[in-house]
Amino acid sequence: MMSLLKGAILSEPPEHAREREDIELCCRYEASDWAKPNWTEKNPVHNWRNYATQPLRRIWHSFTDEQKQVIAFTLQTAADAEQWD
């Protein structure tokens, strides 16, 4: 979407830039322990670590920082969708 503002054309950032911003915000707040998660810590509800499988935990150290952030973001998205009665 584009809009005109005092003669200047402004456009929204590309989708990949918005995705990267979402990932960075998530990893700064909800999944702030993405770099070195404490897998043995008891996790509250809506926590991304609850969705990490044992095989994923075993190889976590082998991922790049970007890969860890994307995985943590993806798992946090699943955690955010939890519904409790």
Structure at a glance:
This protein is mostly helical and 85 residues long. The chain contains 3 helices and 2 strands.
Radius of gyration: 17 Å
DSSP helix fraction: 40-55%
| Poorly predicted ranges | none
Oligomer: single chain
Number of alpha- plus pi-helical segments: 3
Tell me the overall shape. elongated
Largest beta-sheet characterization: 2 strands, antiparallel
- Main sheet strand line-up: 1-2
User: Could you tell me the number of beta strands?
Assistant: 2
The average pLDDT score comes to 87
Q: Structural class, please?
A: mainly alpha
Question: What distance separates the N and C termini?
Answer: 39 Å
Which percent range describes the beta-strand content? 5-15%
Order of helices and strands: EEHHH
Task: Describe the structure using short key phrases.
two-stranded antiparallel ribbon; elongated; 85 residues; 3 helices
